[in-house]
Amino acid sequence: MIYFDHNATTPIDDRVFDAMLPFLKTFYGNPSSLYRHGRACRSAIDAAREQLAALIGVQPGQIIFTSGGTEANNLALATLAPQAGLAVSATEHPSVIEPALHLQSMGHPLTLLDVDANGRIPQDAIDEVISLKPSLVSIMLANNETGAIQNIEHYADQLKAHGIKVHTDAVQALGKIPVDFNRLGAHLMSLSSHKIYGPKGCGALVFEKSVAIKPILLGGGQEQGFRAGTENVAAIVGFGKAAELAKLELAERQAHLLKLRTLLEHGLRAMPGLTVFAEQAERLPNTVQVGIHGIDGEMLLMQLDQKGIAVSSGSACASGIREASPVLVAMGIDPAQAKSAIRISLGKANTEAEVIEFIKQVNSLTR
Ligand SMILES: Cc1ncc(COP(=O)(O)O)c(C=O)c1O
C-alpha cells in the first residue's frame, strides 16, 4: 500500500512500539500505587512528560496527558471560554467547533473568525474580535486539510495585550514543524500522539502556569487533579518516545517531506484543471490538498484505493459525509470545486518512487 494519509493518522514507529511493550505486559501496575510495581509506572509517565516537554520547550508540570487531541481541545474550551464568550476560526477541527457550538447553546456568545482564500486569518478579523473582547480565542496552528499554518505568535501578541486568552490546536503541526509553546505565546495548546508516530488514544493539553484549568473529568487526583482517571501508561510512554524521536529527527523529516511535496506538486500541477488549495499560505511540509476540475474527490479516493493508494478527500473525521469540506467552503471555495478535493499527507517513510507512482495513477484515473 502507498499510504498518503498521515494527517488522519500515522503508523506507529517500531521504536515507539518497543518502548511501549513492557508497559502492556510486565509493568501493569497502577501508577498511583505506592509499591515498586506502581512506582515503575509512575516513573515511566514522568519520563514521557519530560520527553514531550523537551520537544515543545515547557516544564513537565505544564503538561496534562489526555485521551487525545479531541479531549485536549474540549478541556481547553471548557477551561477558558465562559462568561464573555469565545471566538474560534472557521476552519477549526470539529473537536474545537463542536464544543464551541455547545458552549454557545449554553448561552456563551460565539464568534466564527473568517479566513481568507488561503485559509489565513486576516488582520481585520483579529481587530474585530479584539473589539468584542471574548474570554478566549482558539486558532489552530496548522490546518489538517490544507496544511495552512497560522501566525499564532502574531495573533497571540495582539490578543494578550487586550486581556484575551489564546488556545491553539497544534495537533497537526507537532512533529512536522518546530512547535515552541513559549514562542507561540498561547495560554493553552492541544497535542495528539497518533499524528507523530505514537499510539492512538493519547494526547496532551499544555498550559501556561497562570491558567486555572477547569477539569472536565472528575474523580481521582491524576494529572495534578486536572484529568481524573488511571493513566494509559503504555500510550503515554509511546507518546513520550514519539516526541523524543520527533525532536531528534525533526530537521531531517522536514527536509524529506518538503522534497517529496515539491515533487508531488510539480507532477500534479502539470495536470489540466488542477488547483492547489491554500497555495499562497505557508503550509506544512507534508500536506497538499488539490481540487481537479470535473472530478469527484470521494470517487477518486475510492479508485485510488483500488490501486492500493490511501488518500483522504478532506478531513478524516468528515469522511463519509457527502458534503463539501467546511474548511474549503470557509475559504470561499465553490462547494462544487470543494467536492473535487483530495488531500495527500505524506509521512517520513514515503519515497520518491511512491510519489511518482501516485502521479501516474492520478493522471490515468482522471484522463
Ligand atoms: C487539527 C486536529 N485537531 C484535533 C484532532 C483530534 O485529535 P485526536 O484524534 O487525537 O482526538 C485532529 C485529528 O484529526 C486534528 O487533525
Describe this protein's structure.
There is one protein chain. With 367 residues, this protein is α/β, with parallel strands linked by helices. It has 2 domains: 125 residues, Aspartate Aminotransferase, domain 1, CATH 3.90.1150.10; 233 residues, Type I PLP-dependent aspartate aminotransferase-like (Major domain) (Aspartate Aminotransferase, domain 2), CATH 3.40.640.10. The chain contains 12 helices and 12 strands. The strands form 3 sheets. A 7-stranded mixed sheet has the order 2-8-7-6-5-3-4, with helices on both faces. It has a 3-stranded antiparallel sheet with strand order 9-10-12. Helix 6 links the parallel strand 5 and strand 6. The protein is globular, with a radius of gyration of 21 Å. The mean pLDDT is 95. Pyridoxal-5'-phosphate (PLP) binds next to helix 3. Its cofactor is pyridoxal 5'-phosphate. It catalyses: (sulfur carrier)-H + L-cysteine = (sulfur carrier)-SH + L-alanine. Belongs to the class-V pyridoxal-phosphate-dependent aminotransferase family. NifS/IscS subfamily.
